[in-house]
UniProtKB/TrEMBL annotation:
One of its GO terms (cellular component) is plasma membrane. SMART domains: AAA. The keyword Manganese does not apply. It comes from Kineosporia babensis. This is ABC transporter ATP-binding protein. SUPFAM superfamilies: P-loop containing nucleoside triphosphate hydrolases. GO terms for molecular function: ATP binding; ATP hydrolysis activity; transmembrane transporter activity. Keywords: ATP-binding, Nucleotide-binding, Transport. Gene3D superfamilies: P-loop containing nucleotide triphosphate hydrolases.
Amino acid sequence: MDAPALDVAGLSMTYGSGPGAVRALREVGLRLQRGTFTALMGPSGSGKSTFLNCAAGLERPVAGSITIGGRTLPTDEAEATLFRRERIGIVFQNLNLLPYLSARQNVELPLRLAGHQVPRDLARDLLDQVGLVDRVSSLPAEMSGGQQQRVAIARALVTRPDVLFADEPTGALDSRTARNVLGILRGAADRMGQTVVMVTHDPVAAAYADQVVFLADGRIAGQMVNPTPEAVASQMTHLDQLIPALSGAGA
Ligand SMILES: Nc1ncnc2c1ncn2[C@@H]1O[C@H](COP(=O)(O)OP(=O)(O)OP(=O)(O)O)[C@@H](O)[C@H]1O
């Protein structure tokens, strides 16, 4: 059987030290098979972004192992950068495209940075898949926020990464544009076999995923397969009520 796309074990992260230290993640474990779309939800401060940043190699955890496509994420900074470039795709709410490069050049950039030949029609094909084939030559400033986000997704997919991490990719978009971007992420999993992990606060967005993983107080607090917006919203209300109890336990 294929190695899981993402295999995280015992992931712990603490910011600061002494009495003011914040334990953002407490021995989190998560294994995701290829071609799956997972939404990560939880109350504010529950550790979602920290999880994403650690799993994507942008921050170094204090403990735990992260295996991506069967390979351990390097701890060495320079090696981690190379690994990320080749094996990981990242889309942030405000991950800026380079303003002086066209959509096509932005999409091709990760391959160029990695020193690879760029197949002639690759960027155009990816831009076609995100519905922007008529904008290949446009600069970011000439495109709407939703169009720029779609270019960012095409760019994140250009290396065919083992995992595509997206942190609130629809946070800044109106609901119609957001649905369009979510449909593209869904299609990346279904049609391209990409593995997608998305942090979101929005139960409707989460319902595009195959499963929702809930975090609370730095721990996994539940998992929901085939989520509906109603079931996700109900679970979130439950978690919000749970938080004072968890904090009070002093664990
Ligand atoms: N760089 C940092 N320095 C200190 N504390 C941090 C840092 N980054 C995050 N934290 C703390 O770690 C905890 C988890 O933060 P994180 O951003 O992962 O939560 P989140 O679930 O993504 O929250 P939100 O939904 O509000 O974005 C919080 O208590 C936060 O204040």
